[in-house]
C-alpha cells in the first residue's frame, strides 16, 4: 500500500445498544440532527429583530411541527430512494420498502417530503409558507452534515477512484482494492458546514425579513454543492453513469437550482419587513 494512503477507520455499525434496543449510526444522525435543528430553530424564533416584526410562528407551533417534518423526511426520503434509485428491485421485493434499517434514503425525496409537511402544517396553522420554509431550511444543513458523517462511518456512498498520491485517499473495506475519495466527507463539508455558514450569515444580515430568501438560497446552494460532490462520488451501482457521464444526483439537483433561483429572485423583489438587524 502506498505510504500516503489512509487506512479506513472501521467503525461498529451499531452506535448504541441497550438490551434489545439497537440504534445505528444513521438513525442516530437523524435523531441528533432533528434535535439540534429544533434547538437552533427555537433560537431563531426567539429573536424578533431577525424578522423585522412579529415572528410568524410560535414556539408551541414549532414543537408540533417537528413531528410533521420528521414524518416528511422519513416518508419522502424512502419514497424518493425507491422511485429514483432502485425501483425495479423494490417492485420485485415490495416488502423491503419498509426495511429502513437496511439503508436507502434519498435527499431529494426527503426534501419533497419536507415541502409537503411545510405546506400542510402552514395551511392548517395559518403560518406563512415561505417563512416556515425559511426556518426549516435554515436548520437542515445540521442534519445533512451528520447524515454524511454517518455515511462515512458506515463505509457507504464512497467516492470514485483517486490517485494513490492523494494524501487523504482511502481504501474502503467494501469498495475494492483501489484508493478512493472520501466523498462523504466532501459532502459533509459542502452540504453541511459551508451551507449552514452561508445561511447563518444571511440570517444575520436580515434574510429572514424577506420570506423565501433562505429557502431559495438553501435550494440553490445545495444543488450546486451536490453537483460538485457528485464529481467525486461513485454512482449507485444499480444506476451507474447516465447521459453524458451525469449521475442521478446531478440530474435531480438541476431543477432544484432553477427553482431556487426563481424563489430568490421573487424574495429579493419583495419588500423587506422592518429595519436592518442590529449589529449587536
Automatic annotation (TrEMBL):
- Broadest EC class assigned to this enzyme: transferase
Give me the Gene Ontology terms describing cellular component: plasma membrane
The EC number on file is: 2.5.1.145
**Is Transmembrane tagged as a keyword?**
yes
Q: What membrane topology does this protein have?
A: Multi-pass membrane protein
Q: What's a GO biological-process term for it?
A: lipoprotein biosynthetic process
Can you tell me where the transmembrane regions are? 23-45, 65-85, 105-122, 129-150, 185-205, 212-229, 241-268
What GO terms are given for molecular function? phosphatidylglycerol-prolipoprotein diacylglyceryl transferase activity
Q: Which UniProt keywords apply?
A: Cell membrane, Lipoprotein, Membrane, Transferase, Transmembrane, Transmembrane helix
Residue numbers binding a 1,2-diacyl-sn-glycero-3-phospho-(1'-sn-glycerol) = 148
NCBIfam families assigned to the protein according to its UniProt record, in alphabetical order? lgt
Q: What does this protein do?
A: Catalyzes the transfer of the diacylglyceryl group from phosphatidylglycerol to the sulfhydryl group of the N-terminal cysteine of a prolipoprotein, the first step in the formation of mature lipoproteins.
| Assigned protein family | Belongs to the Lgt family.
Q: What is this protein called?
A: Phosphatidylglycerol--prolipoprotein diacylglyceryl transferase
Amino acid at each position: 500500500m502506498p505510504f500516503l494512503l489512509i487506512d479506513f477507520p472501521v467503525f461498529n455499525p451499531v452506535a448504541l445498544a441497550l438490551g434489545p434496543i439497537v440504534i445505528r449510526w444513521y438513525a442516530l444522525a437523524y435523531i441528533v440532527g432533528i434535535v439540534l435543528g429544533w434547538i437552533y430553530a427555537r433560537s431563531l424564533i426567539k429573536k424578533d429583530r431577525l424578522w423585522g416584526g412579529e415572528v410568524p410562528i410560535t414556539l408551541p407551533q414549532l414543537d408540533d411541527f417537528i413531528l410533521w417534518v420528521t414524518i416528511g423526511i422519513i416518508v419522502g426520503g424512502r419514497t424518493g430512494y425507491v422511485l429514483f434509485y432502485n425501483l425495479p428491485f423494490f417492485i420485485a421485493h415490495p416488502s423491503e420498502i419498509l426495511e429502513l434499517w437496511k439503508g436507502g434514503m434519498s435527499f431529494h425525496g426527503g426534501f419533497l417530503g419536507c415541502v409537503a409537511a411545510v405546506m400542510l402544517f402552514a395551511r392548517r396553522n395559518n403560518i406563512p409558507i415561505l417563512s416556515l420554509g425559511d426556518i426549516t431550511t435554515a436548520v437542515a444543513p445540521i442534519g445533512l452534515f451528520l447524515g454524511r458523517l454517518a455515511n462515512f462511518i458506515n463505509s457507504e456512498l464512497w467516492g470514485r477512484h483517486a490517485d494513490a498520491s492523494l494524501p487523504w485517499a482511502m481504501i474502503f473495506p467494501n469498495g475494492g482494492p483501489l484508493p478512493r475519495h472520501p466523498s462523504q466527507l466532501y459532502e459533509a463539508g459542502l452540504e453541511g458546514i459551508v451551507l449552514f455558514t452561508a445561511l447563518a450569515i444571511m440570517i444575520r444580515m436580515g434574510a429572514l425579513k424577506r420570506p423565501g430568501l433562505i429557502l431559495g438560497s438553501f435550494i440553490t446552494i445545495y444543488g450546486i454543492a451536490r453537483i460538485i460532490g457528485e464529481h467525486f462520488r461513485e454512482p449507485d451501482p444499480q444506476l451507474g453513469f447516465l447521459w453524458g457521464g451525469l449521475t442521478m444526483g446531478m440530474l435531480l439537483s438541476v431543477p432544484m437550482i432553477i427553482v431556487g433561483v426563481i424563489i430568490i429572485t421573487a424574495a429579493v423583489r419583495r419588500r423587506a419587513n422592518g429595519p436592518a438587524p442590529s449589529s449587536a
